[in-house]
Protein 1
Amino acid sequence: MSRSLPAPGTGSHDLPVSPALDAFMSTAWADTPLPADIRVPSYDVTPARRARLAARFPGERLVIPAGTLAVRSNDTDHRFRPHTGYAWLTGLTGEDQAGHVLVLEPDGDERHEAVLYLRPRSPRTGREFYSDRRYGEFWVGRRPDLEEAARMTGIRCAHLDAWEKLLTGSQPPVRALGGVDPAVDELLRSCRSLRRRSAPAGLEAVLSELRLVKDPWETGQLQQAVDATVTGFEDVVRSLPQALRHPRGERWIEGVFDLRARLEGNGPGYSTIAAAGAHACVLHWIRNDGPLERDQLLLLDAGVETDSLYTADITRTLPLSGRFSPAQRGVYELVLAAQEAGIAALRPGARFRDFHLAAMRVIAEGLYGWGVLQMSADEALDADNGFYRRYTLCSSGHMLGMDLHDCAQARADRYLDGRLEVGQVLTVEPGLYLQPDDETLPRSLRGIGVRIEDDLVITADGARLMSSALPRTADGIEEWMAALLDG
């Protein structure tokens, strides 16, 4: 009687495989190569990115992991998205990149060679291709072989198993992105000959700073993300009659937008915020489990992420009845005036913080005019008190790109305390969050949350509104909603 073979990467409920079945599974498979001309979309721009990074660390080996799969529950993993630095340098953005590592190997003091260490396609002579739940081709899809991956990326490719052998013997100084892949971190810690150099900025900071200014290809990807997001917002408005009838209307809205995001790109660039009524006063409301009421506002903060992993980030606050009430309109128009002031402050050479300060001055003046703030705008904006922040809570924008909050590891003098440059893409998103239990507010304003957020690219003479296809004024919102609901 034949004995079943051990099962790599299988689950507790998987059926055993007999030697006879294993032998049968290894025969009579046709060759199915990928097209000879297949390339990653950013093939032409990634070599210059790698060269710019390598030039900052002469003579050092740079290690950039893609990241690893994370368990969601038992034997089910979360969807995988490669680390942004890895994707930006290689152009590889798919879920099949889990566990892969890019190494920029020093070739003398002035040059580096890029090498991709990856898990190639499973051969049809083993069992992985049909039995391994994490990596088997019949379970999760085809991966390229080493030759195909090299052709796709223009980078020399080696088997992932060779990565460990790389760290034996004499080593150059090594600099790695830490905290991305625990297996890579452990391997580097175990390498006794590992040497490190100090530098003014670490690898994480330099990668962020190199991405602060977007090239034309990147700006084009971001515009695609914005355009798809506009379509998603239109889908949401058309779906409002059904959403209003459902006891979890917020979740209906989330589902409608996320469907568009999956159809047009990789998916939503972040967890969609569909916050009705007082839920809009919770900055990152992603439970999305509440009903919609016609007398409420809906704050929708959502963005499509393209297959190249560039994401939009747009917010609109919509009256679910189709018309703003007087109190809702008053709050909305104050936030819009603040956003207009912030956008007007965008130009090359302006400080990054200028647009936020401009927006907050308008907010502070408005709160004072309403009698909510008992001090002038100048006093409220003074860093020693900042009382206006009770109602605004957070910053009025951030850099945007492959990460929602892009370039987050950049040093303060290049980002928060830096100057704007042509080609940078950022959001301007002031908001007012008037909590339902805030006794400093008149009852008519409690529980109203409004945010207006748009994506802009810095140009030679100011900034271009990438999301201009979505109306921003209260009248424009009402007219836009009426046209979509009547259509």
Note: Confidence is low (pLDDT under 50) at residues 1-5.
Protein 2
Amino acid sequence: MSDQINSLEELSAVAEGTAEAVVEVSAPREPVRDDLGRSYATGKRKDAVARVWIKPGSGKVTVNGKDQDAYFARPVLQLILRQPMQVAGVEGQFDVVATVKGGGLTGQAGAVKHGISKALQLYDPSLRGALKAAGFLTRDSRVVERKKYGKRKARRSFQFSKR
């Protein structure tokens, strides 16, 4: 019973402000930049892995040494690359350099998008809320299912013949 009284007395002391309240406050996130003022992140989608560097600039996007229009010829893929910048409201303020390997063009575009989002969040932590709300910081973990023995594909069986 005396333990409860002590805790009630402590509670009332804290409420009155006479005792020091210990409250843990998470430290604000710090920007992560290298010596050249760039932020780096790795983006992934399906089998594609993208290494992405962003730095302040004119909004130029380079993928595997080519301009984004040359590498991702389809307008839909170019739109995918622009999404993180539009959501964060920093369109045309950062230069992006990305190297991407594996997968097809759609997976590679998704990987670069994921990498840009993560790098933006590291460069300016205040952008994290908008990017997270849009779902750009979450890796799309869907990958091709492996083929099983006794099956023609992952789940497709061989054609059944009664006779």
Note: The chain has five helices and five strands.
